[in-house]
Write a structure and sequence with these properties.
The structure holds 2 protein chains of 2 kinds. Chain A is an alpha+beta fold. Chain A is about 35% helix and about 25% strand. Chain A has one domain: Roll (SH3 type barrels). Chain B has one domain: Up-down Bundle (Amino acid/polyamine transporter I). In chain B, about 80% of the residues lie in helices and about 0% in strands. In chain B, α4 crosses α10, α4 runs antiparallel to α12 and α4 crosses α13. The termini of chain B are far apart. Classes of the chains: A alpha+beta, B mainly alpha.
Chain lengths: ~120, ~400
Amino acid sequence: MSEIDIALKVLDHQIVDCDGRRCGKVDDLAIEGGAGETARVTAILAGPGYWPERAGWIGRLARAIGGGRRVRVPWEDVAGIEAHVLLRRTARDLGLGRGDDRARPWVEWIPGAHRK
Amino acid sequence: MSKIFGVALGILAAIGGFVDIGDLVFNVAAGATFGYQLLWVLPIGVLGIIVYSEMCGRVAAVSKKAVFDAVRERVGFSAGLSTLIASEVVNLMTLAAEVGGIAISLQLLCGLPYRWLIALGVLGLGLVIWVTSFEWIERIFGYGGLCLLVFAVGAVKLSPAWGKAAHGFIPHVSQNNSLLYLYFVVGLLGAAMTPYEVYFYSSGGVEEEWTPKDLGLNRANAIIGYALGGSLSVALMVTGAALFLNKGISPEHLGTIALGAQVPLGEVGLLFALVGILFAVGGAAIDTTFAGAYNLAQFCGWEWGRYRSAAKAPRFVLSWMALLLLALVIVMTGVDAVVLTEYAVLFSVVALPLTYVPILLVANDVAYMGDHRNGKLANVLGVAYLVVIAAVALSAIPLMILTNVGQN
């Protein structure tokens, strides 16, 4: 199976960082290589900013609600592909999961927010 | 021994947790309108939810993917987003109907003003979700919902026409008012196979970190829990038939449904019925709240789960809070909970194929499921039910219009 086949298999899969944190979906892929060259995946792309390219007007509407953030994770930072796409680094390092970081103060003040 | 005890407790909770406001409304109304003639629909609906819940639980245990992970991976972003929007709309309608049901049962129990009780109900749901663990939510509402067994006792005491009831289990088409009859067929199937149940069930499986070792437990939960829970639906329809048929009474209020226990069993029966309805509808409201937040978080790839602290999954938490608030606003407009229930069930029927097709695809995918992919029986039943689901999905809206939402 070529690298491209593997990459296409991970499109729309869950991304999980090295601490086991869910931190986005594979919303698109960056593929390089011109005509006659071997195509190569250079990065996985995540964030609502990529949604309009996937789903037209409904994607644009979803981006307007979700914010236009785009994050590019170099393919070298992908540790493995199991049930989910596993990363070598933390979400924070790669700029992923920012929505949860921004939303946390809205929840943290409530007593019991840190209790499982 | 403790494992058997655990399974038994789980099954008890499943029986109490099976019935929601959709089942209460459609089963009693079907009995009141067509007597025992529609009993045959119930085993078909219950088998459908067993087939797809077992499949979802198996997918969760083997591939670690909940329904909306599978939906997005298998049908892609665009179709997945449409499915998400449809499911969230239906989910919110169902949640609002359940919240209305909570307020009505509280009002019948304590007599306070309806709008106060809507606010109290939503506040109570929020507190229970925030404070109580998953296990205790399941136990409290599941066991409380067992009070609905009073309808089974009541149904027997009403001395129904057993021969006619047995005949009702043979599928047939009514000669009288066949459009309304078909409307109830669609509604009963929709009420039994409500999609939020599979969203909740599969996400719970991922949360509890099921593995292939839990497949036996998954099968037992799905088959025994839903089958026994479905028997409550039979009791409700028999009650509707024995008590209301040919008396010109249409159970358009939850209080009328509770009469089904009061007439044969007196005030104690009424009390059990109202408490049972309160817990059954309350439990369904919590399942629906979670289902909506699960779906959104799974589609977007956010951190989610009741087994994480709220601070670890803040967007998931804000999602369920927002859903509860939206449900509060909808019910506060004064919309009738029973009417809302009928719309919620019928629209959920329309959204059913969007949910069940990706599940069937994933359950057959060797890459996801390996040796645990669907066998012949699961596939035959899965495809047969897709045909049934497609037929009811296509006919739901026309039947709703032609029968004026079951009023003709």
